[in-house]
Amino acid sequence: MSLANEKLLGKVAMLSCLDDSYVKQIEKLGWRYCVGKVGSMESNKVVAAIETGAKKEDVIKGSIYRETHALYHAIMEAIYGVTRGHVQLGTVLRTVGLRFVVVRGNPYDQAEEGDWIAVALYGTIGAPVKGLEHEAVGLGINHI
Amino acid sequence: MSLANEKLLGKVAMLSCLDDSYVKQIEKLGWRYCVGKVGSMESNKVVAAIETGAKKEDVIKGSIYRETHALYHAIMEAIYGVTRGHVQLGTVLRTVGLRFVVVRGNPYDQAEEGDWIAVALYGTIGAPVKGLEHEAVGLGINHI
Amino acid sequence: MSLANEKLLGKVAMLSCLDDSYVKQIEKLGWRYCVGKVGSMESNKVVAAIETGAKKEDVIKGSIYRETHALYHAIMEAIYGVTRGHVQLGTVLRTVGLRFVVVRGNPYDQAEEGDWIAVALYGTIGAPVKGLEHEAVGLGINHI
Amino acid sequence: MSLANEKLLGKVAMLSCLDDSYVKQIEKLGWRYCVGKVGSMESNKVVAAIETGAKKEDVIKGSIYRETHALYHAIMEAIYGVTRGHVQLGTVLRTVGLRFVVVRGNPYDQAEEGDWIAVALYGTIGAPVKGLEHEAVGLGINHI
Amino acid sequence: MSLANEKLLGKVAMLSCLDDSYVKQIEKLGWRYCVGKVGSMESNKVVAAIETGAKKEDVIKGSIYRETHALYHAIMEAIYGVTRGHVQLGTVLRTVGLRFVVVRGNPYDQAEEGDWIAVALYGTIGAPVKGLEHEAVGLGINHI
Amino acid sequence: MSLANEKLLGKVAMLSCLDDSYVKQIEKLGWRYCVGKVGSMESNKVVAAIETGAKKEDVIKGSIYRETHALYHAIMEAIYGVTRGHVQLGTVLRTVGLRFVVVRGNPYDQAEEGDWIAVALYGTIGAPVKGLEHEAVGLGINHI
């Protein structure tokens, strides 16, 4: 039960989210993943966009609730990193523009640890006025 | 007041935290920064390690409170990303091992936006038992 | 000022919420109560349904603010148990279907402890898709 | 993927926590479980007591991190119900006395939903003075 | 059930906390109150100091739990104003120096609204270094 | 880096918010400020009203993001004091009626500490029914 250095799930998800050239590393590892973008003042739209992306690319099976449940909590944890303290956007007058990467794989040495899911977010958060914004990052990890 | 693509403060801090080879990009930009490591079950030790690192490397001036204040809030926001929902470690029986990068610079096109500070964290969070852990990331950004 | 074993307000409220056959225990104790159901993606609708139920059944007097205030905080505390960490539903793309029981009585040995109010919630929380949900529980207790 | 009425995991865990006579229902379902008690002003002791109980009774395998991870988050969610708003005890001058029940089983109609874990808590929370306390409840549910 | 302009409980408590010359207004209203100071890195010490002050000056009766319960929640709400977002001090490496005023009275036109309690806090919060601090304020109000 | 007694930014903002006769003290100090009122069930409207007031009275320069950023966080911190625990209003069925004062100045002895901003709030919070409400206060302070 130790994290294997050459397959750090969170790191590869976060790097791929920050820099597109890293995405091929996910492919080399043979892991399922999806990449997408979402901009919104409504946090439910952010959740929905990531869920939709992950289902369309078969990162999770939408027909099994445990997979949706695992992804949902990973998304919420990633959003905490972006919003820092309360999971609210438009209700506190701010908006986000985010790139997201969802990756699924086993980052541990032991096969019995099974699949884990990482949701990485990178983009901007700020007032609903172009330019009045700074960068933000989030990473959620869960067993699936 | 728009973020300049070639000097994205948060991105360069986060990439440098995930992958040491990016640190030279910070130097190319001529920005002040520090890199360090901290492992603890006590969140105050994490805060203290980052503050000490940033002061020793002159990223902030310890004698001016506004700089300490800016850094403190950036650290707290980064820790939110790592802890996701409540800023607690040992009191909820978990521990972290983190690499941190603090960078100071102006990521905007306008000189009058002045300096901003980014605190990037990457490492593991988990039970106080080797291996029972997964990765975590945090980024806090503030004007200074 | 000790809780009397035979009149544990929270326990009888929670049991009645989980299993309808317990409701007659509340009646045996001579306590005022109400039972209801609410399903919504909007947390304010959950609050409103419980307040309306409690007022209609005279569990609290709507014309006295201190009673509304006591009930409101008990409801919010119960919702914390259901939502775990942030009091949001639709804004984070989830919905609830809840049965609620509100009970008012004195669970203490001493008459001077006066009335207390318990709000018990049991049901499901999950994605706005039938079946993509798991159970949730909440209990809020306040002096009134 | 719908919850099966005769095997509601959360309900049976909560009822067993409130009323010992329900525990035999868990056994009838053939599910693994543990029952225990913990009283403390330190939330990490509450977490540790439940983890230890669950491992000793083989509700989870301590050697697989994904099982510890699933249990940990279920415990934290249950504690949210007890503490309502921030996961703190002694640091805000309060203490708990709790009975806990951990149950593991599949509450869904579909076998592929696999095992889920429920952590139910019931007891008192209050000032560190006997009698200055009221009841509290928490339920955390996670896929495992 | 409307707040009476000449007896705004929260306002008189807050003003008295900010400016000692207002304390005689509380006396004119015939309300029970206490004034005190507390400085600490431990939030439980802040809670304890206010509780002790209020009991010693008979603002609340320590032998009745409902009064302790009402005061406790008013204190916690006031501390939220001071700490803004998480009720932690030393665990996130900060300390407070606070003046507190607790007042008990009925701010409403209707006698049946009974007594309410206000806890007002004013002072500084900051790093555990003299001068690295700024001001903070909190007000908690509850029915008693 | 110590707070100067005769120019306590937070105190003068809070006192001016509670009692209009204090506003002339801000003027004596030569500090920029604004005073306004806002009533709403939507927290984003509260944020917007304060931002608009501060920009119109030139307390901050709307064209510089660092000033908007400083003000935004001061507003959010003040709202925490008013809402105590989660930054929500209508979504948890409550409304506020607030007077706000924003002040900008240097409360420290050292000129190099530069300008700081204080956002003070005072008013009522409660059910969306006239009279079902109690007082609330908030103060947010930030370097600018």
From TrEMBL, chains A, B, C, D, E, F:
The keyword Transcription regulation applies. Keywords: Activator, Histidine metabolism, RNA-binding, Transcription, Transcription regulation. Pfam families: HutP. Coiled coil: none annotated. Belongs to the HutP family. HAMAP family: HutP. Homohexamer. Antiterminator that binds to cis-acting regulatory sequences on the mRNA in the presence of histidine, thereby suppressing transcription termination and activating the hut operon for histidine utilization. This is Hut operon positive regulatory protein. The lineage of its organism: Bacteria, Bacillati, Bacillota, Bacilli, Bacillales.
